[in-house]
Write a structure and sequence with these properties.
- The chain has 3 helices and 7 strands, in the order βββαααββββ.
- The protein is of the alpha+beta class.
- Strands 1, 2, 3, 4, 5, 6 and 7 form a 7-stranded mixed β-sheet that branches.
- The longest helix is centred in the middle third of the chain and has 14 residues.
- It is elongated.
- It starts with a strand and ends with a strand.
């Protein structure tokens, strides 16, 4: 029977879980500073990532967090929660979709479900579906990782 693990109560790496088990990270607020620094470091100079006005001129209600910044913070939550603490290499992300905007000040968490695992000489190959959920319980992104 599948089990659910929450970071607050249990730190469990993917390779110690069973197929169908889920892992839910703690939530974390994304700050305006993080958003803007991420965009600057990547050369992603779209105005919607730097100001309310820039976002509103492009049809958004307020400043946006770059999708890849949201994804990077989500991976950090998985690492800090212990789910991917022993990763040797990330082999890929499939079917990644950004479903809703994320704004500075929003809080996100990650929910995963382990879909496969196989031990090899260098460690484990684990696959899992993931979803990034905001403070309003809206799924803002999802995908499948190996």
């Amino acid at each position: 029977m599948a089990k659910a693990y929450r970071e607050d109560s249990w730190r469990k790496p993917a390779q110690e879980m069973e197929i169908g088990d889920t892992f839910i990270t703690k939530s974390r607020v994304i700050t305006r500073t993080e958003c803007e620094l991420f965009a600057l470091m990547g050369g992603d100079w779209f105005p919607q990532f730097f100001s309310e006005t820039g976002a509103q001129k492009r049809g958004w209600k307020t400043q946006l967090v770059p999708g890849l910044c949201t994804l990077n913070i989500a991976y950090g939550l998985l690492m800090q929660g212990g789910f991917i603490k022993d990763v040797v290499a990330m082999m890929g992300t499939k079917s990644m979709e950004f479903l809703a905007p994320v704004h500075p000040g929003d809080s996100i968490r990650v929910e995963t479900e382990l879909s496969s695992k196989k031990e090899i000489s260098k460690g484990w190959i684990c696959e899992y579906d993931w979803a990034i959920i905001n403070q309003d319980e809206t799924m803002v992104a999802k995908g499948h990782n190996t």
